[in-house]
Each structure stands twice: as structure tokens, then as C-alpha cells.
């Protein structure tokens, strides 16, 4: 086990390793993203964490990037290099994979993103 020094961290990447995302290559995405980060020399600046389900199973494999609050869908190992180069090196989120972004009053869906159901509505069923 390690205790990382996060003082230089600019991005925190949450990679879903819940059931649906694992069936869609979550482990492979995790490995590919981490390798691309290392190859780009960004280990001190981009911290990754495997998570359990993030609640957007239809979007599997899901990756979330903070502090921007960008949610990505259908991420594959082949997307790793593009995501690292564009988002972490060039500061440009990859719009083709983006489902949500955080703005002042909360998360905003991109135009083509399925809205999903409110948690309060699911509880009533």
C-alpha cells in the first residue's frame, strides 16, 4: 500500500470498475489510462482511482475527471491515448465521449445523453 503525495495533482480520474463497466472492459480501460498517463510523464499530475458503480451503467465504461466534473461514456482502452493527450495535456475535454459536465448549478447533460431516472423516482418503485 502506498500513501501518495497529491500536492502536484491537477486531475483526479475515477474509472468505474462496477459490474456493467467491468463487462465492458473496465479493467482494461484502467490499465490503458494508467499506462498512457505514465507514458506522457503525468503520474505526478493525474491521480486515478478505481470505483464501484457510478450509476450510469448504460454508459459503460464510465470515466469521471475532476476538478472539471467531466463524465465520459463508452470509454475503451483505445481511447486512453486520446483522452490523456487532449484532456490532460491540452486541456480540451473529448466532446465525442462526454456525457456530463459540471457547471455552477450542477451537472449538465450533453445534447445526445440519455437523461436517466432521478434517484427519488427509483425509490418509489
UniProtKB/TrEMBL annotation:
GO terms for molecular function: iron-sulfur cluster binding; metal ion binding. Keywords: Iron, Iron-sulfur, Metal-binding. InterPro entries: Thioredoxin-like_sf. Gene3D superfamilies: Glutaredoxin. Coiled coil: none annotated. The keyword Transport does not apply. Pfam families: 2Fe-2S_thioredx. This is (2Fe-2S) ferredoxin domain-containing protein. It comes from Brevibacillus brevis (Bacillus brevis).
Amino acid at each position: 500500500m502506498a500513501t501518495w503525495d497529491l500536492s502536484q495533482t491537477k486531475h483526479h480520474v475515477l474509472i468505474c470498475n462496477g459490474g456493467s463497466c467491468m463487462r465492458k472492459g473496465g479493467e482494461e480501460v484502467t490499465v490503458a489510462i494508467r499506462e498512457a498517463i505514465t507514458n506522457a510523464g503525468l503520474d505526478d499530475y493525474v491521480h486515478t482511482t478505481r470505483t464501484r458503480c457510478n450509476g450510469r451503467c448504460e454508459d459503460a465504461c464510465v470515466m469521471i475527471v475532476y476538478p472539471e466534473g467531466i463524465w465520459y461514456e463508452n470509454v475503451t482502452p483505445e481511447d486512453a491515448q486520446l483522452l490523456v493527450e487532449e484532456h490532460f495535456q491540452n486541456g480540451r475535454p473529448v466532446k465525442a465521449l462526454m456525457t456530463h459536465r459540471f457547471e455552477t448549478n450542477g451537472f449538465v447533460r450533453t445534447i445526445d445523453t440519455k437523461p436517466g431516472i432521478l434517484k427519488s423516482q427509483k425509490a418509489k418503485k
